[in-house]
Amino acid sequence: MARPRWLVECRRRGSGFRLGRSWVSFRESGPPGPGDGEVDVAGKNPKVDEILRREERWPDEMAELRAIALSCGLSEEVKWGQACYCLDGRNVVLVHGFKEYCAFLLFKGALLEDPDGILVRQTENVQAARQIRFGSVVEIVRRKAALKRYVLRAIELEKSGTKAEFKKVEEFAVPDEFRRALEGSAALRKAFDALTPGRRRMYLSHFGGAKQASTREARVAKHVPRILQGLGLDD
């Protein structure tokens, strides 16, 4: 597919252009490295472009968070239907949105120092992950330097190989909506018990993370077929 004329011209001149509120620069040096303030358009995943096009509540905020994550040298993937930023295939940070806020989700945030007091534990079932929440682009821009520091620390933590300690599956609360499903289906109970502890923890955390009973019911209904197939939340 031929590149648009404006894109070819920008590359030829070595210049850049404005994408939303972010400046995108074309460079000869390859993908962005850790701490690099510019976003190389080559590092963007078209599937994330589509997610942002569909987003109605937080498109500008998510675009800003995306730019910050990419500027730290992470690869852009799609997991759980959201933009996920990885280091050698390992999850570091997720961008996701809710009714009241959008957020960075740092997968090992519980292991990070929090000098700015901005890390939030989403629910009591969440163990290692921590959110940094926002309600506007202004908030994100104001904290941009701090956000980059947190992401870069998370990258260093991932490089170090440090593992988060998880409580046992038996210590997780089982939401009533999922408990009823298990009690009503011997096949589901058998399939769930056959999953690895990590997969079971993720399902219980995902189901229990919803505040509304209707949301918990919807999540259970959506994922029961995957459990019966022996699949985890992210398989």
Q: Based on CA inertia axes, which overall geometry fits?
A: globular
- Unreliable spans are 1-41
Q: Given the helix and strand composition, which structural class is it?
A: alpha+beta
Query: Roughly how many Å apart are the termini?
Result: 32 Å
**Assembly context of the chains:** single chain
Count the beta strands.
7
Strand content: 15-25%
Biggest beta sheet attributes: 5 strands, antiparallel
Query: How are the strands of the largest sheet arranged?
Result: 3-4-5-6-7
Features:
235 residues; alpha+beta; five-stranded antiparallel beta sheet; two-stranded antiparallel sheet; globular; disordered N terminus
Explain this structure:
It is a single chain. About 40% of the residues lie in helices and about 15% in strands. It is an alpha+beta fold and about 240 residues long. The strands form 2 sheets. It has a 5-stranded antiparallel β-sheet with strand order 3-4-5-6-7. Strands 1-2 form a two-stranded antiparallel ribbon. A hairpin with a 2-residue loop joins strand 4 and strand 5.
